Amino acid sequence: MTGGKRLDLGRANRLLNESPGRRAPRCPHFGVCGGCATQHADMATQMAAKQDWLEQNLARIGKVKPERMLPMVTGEEWGYRHRARLSVRRVAKKGGVLVGFRERRTTYVAELRECAVLPSRISALIMPLRELVEALSVRIRLPQIEVAVGDDVDEGDTVVILESMKMEMPVEAEDAGTVTEILCEEGQAVNEGDALVVLGG
């Protein structure tokens, strides 16, 4: 238990009775990775909690009460995050470059191998991206990677942007072939002098 001026924080050390809405998290990184925090609750429980949070804020902050609540709109439970900013950090003790979300309440990068909330084609890139950044000469200047897929997850394009700490970073000759080999499909090459942006089918 930790205390503050406005609230106390505690952590349960055992469960006596599980809620009917509780389930085993699907992601093996849940609890360490800060990318999501409610996988231990089923979809209905998550949505009910979000609606209750909204109603409480409307009453407490806005001093208003809705005349009626429309039915909640839901989407896919998994693979719904079509855009994400992944942190990058080289950690020698963990064997090289890590690519993923930050650990919960820390600045450390979680050691991910997959992510259930990213589309499968993006989740499958996590390990190749780790390999890619490790092989680049500019790896210490890459703090994050932006990834995005089109609305049609199965057929749409995938965009991977390797962001440097400089405003502009043209691809160096030794890195161009590495990016093409690891991430790009045949016919999609990255050349020396290009911006370090990768488009994949």
Word description of this protein:
The structure is a single chain. The protein has 201 residues and is an alpha+beta fold. The chain has a domain at 83-200: OB fold (Dihydrolipoamide Acetyltransferase, E2P) (Beta Barrel). The protein is 21% helix and 17% strand. The chain has a 5-stranded antiparallel β-sheet, with helices on one face. A two-stranded antiparallel ribbon has the order 1-2. Strand 5 and strand 6 form a beta hairpin. Helix 3 (126-135) packs antiparallel against helix 4 (173-183). It is globular, with a radius of gyration of 21 Å. The protein starts with a strand and ends with a strand.
Any key phrases for this structure?
4 helices, two-stranded antiparallel ribbon, OB fold (Dihydrolipoamide Acetyltransferase, E2P), 21% helix, 201 residues, 5-stranded antiparallel β-sheet, alpha+beta
Per-chain topology:
Elements: E1 2-3, E2 8-9, H1 43-60, E3 83-91, E4 96-100, H2 120-123, H3 126-135, E5 144-149, E6 158-163, H4 173-183, E7 197-200
Strand order of the largest sheet: 4-3-5-6-7
Mean pLDDT level: 81
Helix content percent band: 10-25%
Shape: globular
Q: What proportion strand? A: 15-25%
Distance between the termini: 49 Å
SSE sequence, one letter per element: EEHEEHHEEHE
Please state the second-level CATH architecture of the domain at 83-200: Beta Barrel
CATH fold group of the domain at 83-200:
OB fold (Dihydrolipoamide Acetyltransferase, E2P)
Number of DSSP-assigned strands: 7
Task: Kindly report the oligomeric state of this protein.
Answer: single chain
The computed structural class is alpha+beta
The number of helical elements comes to 4
Radius of gyration: 21 Å
What is the name of the CATH class of the domain at 83-200? Mainly Beta
- Largest beta-sheet characterization: 5 strands, antiparallel
Unreliable segments of 5+ consecutive residues? 186-201
